[in-house]
Amino acid sequence: MQQRVYDFIPQSDGWAVVVDGRLVASYASLYLAVTAVKAGTHGKITDRSRLVMRRQGVDGSLHDLPGPHDTSAARDTRLLH
């Protein structure tokens, strides 16, 4: 299954949305950035691609964020790692 990966990178004035290494948008908060991606602002996934969202942490590594179809149990488990 193909994946469509969105990375959320902190900036001095908010959060950047990066797709395939290219900056596609900036938002004032992580919440606004994630909401825009989930709403399909940056392209709806019409094929069977899996939506993957990652947030850059203070250590520079990327951490998975819950996707739009994750169950609460899966989301809670992923956030613990």
TrEMBL record:
This is DUF2188 domain-containing protein. Residues 58-81 are annotated as: Disordered. Residues 72-81 have a biased composition (Basic and acidic residues).
